[in-house]
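BUG: 3D viewer hangs when loading the predicted structure for this chain

Environment: internal workstation, default settings.
Expected: structure renders.
Actual: progress bar stalls at 90%.

Input used:
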Amino acid sequence: MKYKQGYWVELQTKRLAGGVSAEANSWEGGLGAVYSEKLLGLTGYVEYSIPYFMAWRFQLDLLSNKEWRPQLSFGIPIEYQDFKVEPHMRF
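C-alpha cells produced before the viewer hung:
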C-alpha cells in the first residue's frame, strides 16, 4: 500500500494545532500538538474523504489539564498538485 506523508496546521477561534499526517486509500490520520484556551496538549485525528467532494473527520485533543475534547467535523477538500486546503465545520 502506498501512502502520502504530510504536514497540517489548523486555525480556529482560541485554538491552534499542527503536526504530521499520513494518507492512503481515502483515509488519513494525523498526530500533533495543540494550544487551546491557554493550555498545551496532544491531538490526533482520523479522516475519510471522497476526493473533490466531502471529508469527515473525528479529532481528539488531550489537554494539559487532563481534559479530553472530541470533535466531529466535515469539510470540502480543495486540492492543487501537492497542496490541499480543507475548510471544515465542527459539530
